[in-house]
Amino acid sequence: MVGARLASVREAVRGEPDSASAQSELAGVVQELLNGELDASQRGAKRDALCQYYRYFLDDDGRVMPLAVWAYVQRLWPLVECVAVKDRPCRVLDAGCGYGTESYLMALLGCEVTGVELVPARVEIARSRAAYFRSLYPGPLSVQFAAANVLSHLQAGGQYDIIWAMEAISHIHPAQTFVALAAAALVSGGNLVVSDPNRANPLALWRSIAIRGSVRHKTHRRFLDPQTGAPVEYGQEHITSVAGAVALLRNAGLEVTRVAMSGFAGTTILPRWLVRQPVVAALLQRTGAAAARNPLIRGLGTVYTVVARKA
């Protein structure tokens, strides 16, 4: 059962936070979850949206590549560590939850999760995934989704043990306001966990420029607040370096307790036929893990995950 396997991951992390075997087990669970969901999904807009969202995870046959999932778990691992040491039930806000993958994963780990997303169509897809994930869990799965501006959601009140923001602060504008509101919404000892592309990495920087079509960052107002109908000032791949992210969190009065770098495996730039080869995948995994630990180059990882704690 998925629930039992994730419970074992949680217990393993309590005893050994950087457990390689627990990371491998979580990667196996995630791979099984995503392949199972895609297999169960009928052809249509929802499946197409998920395949597009997971395009860097999938090989040419539409199956989830083990190396891609391993890289994803490296990015998530600081979040998993935070979840593992909290007493249940752990209240989590998934800020900018998109299609809700991490929301469901945290719920499967035993958390009470609220996913907030600005784009209503994404929220509809996130909600539509509930039946599949609930079928895998023996008890009630505590996860809900709201179509809302996350700044307004935080201003409305509510307290959380963990606030997770993956590829969100580069879009939430201004990021300083989000971090200040998130800090206020955390309970004492709570964690804000931020993961985003690292501007210090040339590939991540080039991608951000290519997506927005300009070297200079400009906000846009193409999205409407789902609750008020007013245009929302939206950041457009306004990425920062890991040093910038650390400074942003510290300026809000939070203590930075963990900085993890990932994205060294090359899963988004190498040909899929190559990445899916077991020997190549194993070599890239070992190389990526070593690079993330090397103090001379770890700051150049394409992705950072920073954990901050409220006193």
Question: Key features?
Answer:
Rossmann fold; 311 residues; alpha/beta; 7-stranded mixed sheet
Question: What percent of residues adopt helix (DSSP H or I)?
Answer: 40-55%
Structural class: alpha/beta
Widest sheet: strand order?
Answer: 3-2-1-4-5-7-6
Query: What is Rg?
Result: 18 Å
How many structural domains can be distinguished in the coordinates? 1
Please, could you describe this protein's structure?
It contains 13 helices and seven strands. It is of the alpha/beta class and 311 residues long. It has a single domain, classed as Vaccinia Virus protein VP39 (Rossmann fold, 3-Layer(aba) Sandwich), CATH 3.40.50.150. A seven-stranded mixed beta sheet has the order 3-2-1-4-5-7-6, sandwiched between helices. Helix 1 (2-15) runs antiparallel to helix 2 (20-40).
What order do the helices and strands come in, and which of them pair?
Elements: H1 2-15, H2 20-40, H3 45-53, H4 66-85, E1 91-95, H5 101-108, E2 112-117, H6 120-128, H7 130-134, E3 143-147, H8 150-155, E4 160-166, H9 175-185, E5 186-197, H10 202-212, H11 242-251, E6 255-262, H12 272-275, H13 278-293, E7 303-309
Parallel strand pairs: 1-2, 1-4, 2-3, 4-5
Antiparallel strand pairs: 5-7, 6-7
Short overview:
By secondary structure, the chain is an alpha/beta fold. The chain has 13 helices and seven strands. Helix 1 runs antiparallel to helix 2.
